Amino acid sequence: MSAPLPTPSSPGDDYLARLNPEQREAVETLDGPVLILAGAGTGKTRVLTTRFAHLLKSGRAWPGQVLAVTFTNKAAREMRERVSAILGQPAEGLWLGTFHALCARMLRRHAEFVGLTSAFTILDTDDQMRLLKQVMEAAGIDLKRWPAQGLMGQIQRWKDRGLAPDRVTPAEDTDYAAGKARGLYAAYQSRLRDLNCCDFGDLMLHVTEIFRTRPEVLADWQRRLRYILVDEYQDTNLVQYYWLRLLAQSHRNICCVGDDDQSIYSWRGAEIENILRFEKDFPNAKVVRLESNYRSTKPILAAASHLIAHNSGRLGKTLRAGRNDAEGDKVRVVSLWDSEEEARMVGERIEAFKRSGHKLAEIAILVRAGFQTRAFEERLITLGLPYRVIGGLKFYERAEIRDAMAYLRVLAQPADDLAFERIVNTPKRGLGDTAMRRMHEIARAESIPLAAAAHRLLPNLTAKPRAALGELLHGFARWREGLSKEGHVVTAATLLDESGYTEMWKQDKSPEAPGRLENLKEFIRALGEFESLAGFLEHVALVMENDENSEGDRLSLMTLHAAKGLEFDTVFLPGWEEGLFPHARAMEEGGEKGLEEERRLAYVGITRARKQAIISAAANRRIYGNWSASVPSRFLEELPAAHIQREGSASMARQRVAEMPSVFTGAGGLQSRKPRVIEAGAWEVQSRPSHAQPLKPGERVFHKKFGYGRVTAVDDNRIEVDFEKSDPKRVLDSFLERA
C-alpha cells in the first residue's frame, strides 16, 4: 500500500474556497451515498476532481482506495491532471479510468474464474465480426438473410444488460436467425474462451459475473476500494450499474455525478432509470443539486429550463445564472420559407458575426441528424467560411455517400475503373480475391476498362457470382437508358434500390445504419438541385477539393449528440420540425420515453450556448425533388415567450395542412399514402413561388452553387450572370433567386 499524500501545512485550503456553497457541500459530504445533480455549466468537473483530491488531502483514503470512473480516456486524463494540480504533486497509484479499462485490470487478476488466462487478448471490432461469422457459418446460418452485424448488435445489447448466454431468458430473447440467437451467442462465447480472447463487452460482463458468483473476490475488492466516484452517471448501462452496486453495497461510500436532463444515449444502452432510482437503491442518500450555471445568459437558461420542465421523468432542478454578466439577448426563433433559405440565413449571419470580430471557432451549428450537414456545408463552402465537422466526416466523405457517388460515376463514365472497383462487390456479390485479380489481368492484357473486363470474366465464374455480377452489368445498361427517359434523380434512386445498395443498409442492424439511410435520402435530394448528372458530379468534385486544413479559425458543425460536453459563444439550432426534431424514429421506437429523450437533446443543444442561441425551422423541405410541408416542432411551443424573440419570413397559420400524397421513403422510390391531416401550429404552405416579374440586367441574384451575382443578359428563361465568386455563367432562371 502506497504512503498517504501529505496534508498541506497551510490551513487555508484555498481549493475549497474557490467553490460556491452547493459545490462545497458536494465536495465535503464524504461518507455514505451521494448523488450530485450537476446541471449544464455548473462546474461538474471541478466538483468531481476537488472531491477526489479532498478525500486524499483530508487523509480519509489512500490513493489506491479510491475508485474513480469516467466514460472517456480524455476525461480520465483531465481528472488526473486536475487532482495532481490540487495536490501539488503527481497522483500515483490511483484506480482512475474508464469502466472498461478498470475492468480489464480487474479481469487480468481473476481471468481463471471465467476460463481465461491473465494474458487474454481483447479483440477489435473486425476480429469480433470475423469470429462471429465463422460461428454462424458453422451453424449453417444464411449470412445474406441474417447478417452478422445484426447478431453482433444483439449480443452487445445482452452484454450491456449484464446477460451471459445462460442468463438470457425467453423474455430477453430475440427471433433473430430463426430463434437461434441465444445458441449462437453461447457458441461465440465458447470460441472466445478457446482462443483466450474476449471482446469489449466481455470486460464488464466477466468481472460482474465473477463478483456475482465469487463472494470472496467481491469482498476483497470492497475492502480495497473504500470510496467510489462516478462521472456521467446518467449515461451508465445496466452492466455498469450492476458492477457499481456490487462494489458499493458494503461501505455505501459511492458518489455519482450526473444530470438526468442530459441523458441522451439510450440508443447506446444508457438507462436513465439508473440515476432516477439512486435514492431507492441507496436509502438515506444525500442529493446535492448544482444549479448555478457559469456558462450561459439568463434568457438561454430560462429557455432551457422551461423546455425541460415538460418532461415528467426527471428529478428536477432549475438552472440559474451564476455569471456577473448574465443579461443578454433573447433566444431567437427564426421561421423560414424553406430549408434553402434556412441555410442561407445561417451562412449570412455567420458572415455578419465574422465581420464584427466574432471568432468562427466560437460558433457552432448543431443538427439533429447527420444528413442535415450537407446543406450547411455547401453554403459555407460557397461563402468561403472555413469549418470542421466534429465527431464525424464531412457529408461527401462518408462511406455510404462515396459508394453512391461511385455508382453514379460508373453510370456517367463506364471507364471509371476506380469507381467500378469500389462498387462491384458492394454489396457482396460473391467476387473473391481470385476473381478480382483475374478481372484486373484481363483489363491490363486487353487495355479495356474493368467493367468491360467483368463482362469477359462472366463465363468463368461460378453460378452465384456470375448471376450477381451479370445483374449489375445489365443494370448499368438499363439505368443509362433511364437517364434520358426519367432523368438523373429518378434514375439514381432506382439504381441504389435495384443494385441492392439501399437494401444492404436496411438489413444492417448497427446503430449507424438508420443514419446512413437518411444520408442516402439527402444525397438524392442533392441531385434534385442540379440540371444534370454531369453537373452534380462536377460540383461534388469541386466540393471535395475544398481546403481540408483543420488549422486556423473555423466554425464547428456537428450533431447534437456529438455536442454534449462542449460550449460555444453562439449556437445555431436548425431543423426544429416535427419528424426531424423530435425525430420520428425516436418516437416510433420509444414512445413517450423517446419523446422525453428528444426533449433532453433539445435541452443539451440550447445549453451549449454561452451568449446567443438561434433556433430555426423551415415551412417547406424538398423531398425527392418536390416541396413538402413541414410542421413546426412541438418544442418551439414549449419555449417561454418572455425569453424568445421570433423572427423570419415564413407565414405561420394555425390551420390544418394536408400532407403531400407522395412521400419519399427510401434512397429510391415513392410510396403513395392517403393524405393525412396535421393539426396545431402548422405553417401555411403554397407552391414554391416563381418570379412574379422576369429578371432584368443589373439585378442581384443568388444561385445555390455559384453564390451571388448580377444579371448581365436575358434570353427568355436563360440568364447570363456575372458571379462574385465564380466565372460568368449562363443558367436557367428557375435556379436563380432575387437577392
UniProtKB/TrEMBL annotation:
Similarity field: Belongs to the helicase family. UvrD subfamily.
Domain of life from the UniProt record: Bacteria
UniProt protein name: DNA 3'-5' helicase
Catalytic activity, as annotated: ATP + H2O = ADP + phosphate + H(+); Couples ATP hydrolysis with the unwinding of duplex DNA by translocating in the 3'-5' direction
Enzyme Commission code(s) on record: 5.6.2.4
Tagged with keyword Translocase: no
Originating organism: Belnapia arida
EC class of the enzyme, as a word: isomerase
Boundaries of every UvrD-like helicase ATP-binding domain copy: 17-297
Chain ranges of the UvrD-like helicase C-terminal domain: 298-565
Positions contributing to ATP binding: A38, G39, A40, G41, T42, G43, K44, T45
DNA-binding listed as a keyword: yes
PROSITE patterns documented for this protein: UVRD_HELICASE_ATP_BIND (PS51198), UVRD_HELICASE_CTER (PS51217)
Record keywords: ATP-binding, DNA-binding, Helicase, Hydrolase, Isomerase, Nucleotide-binding
Lineage: Bacteria, Pseudomonadati, Pseudomonadota, Alphaproteobacteria, Acetobacterales
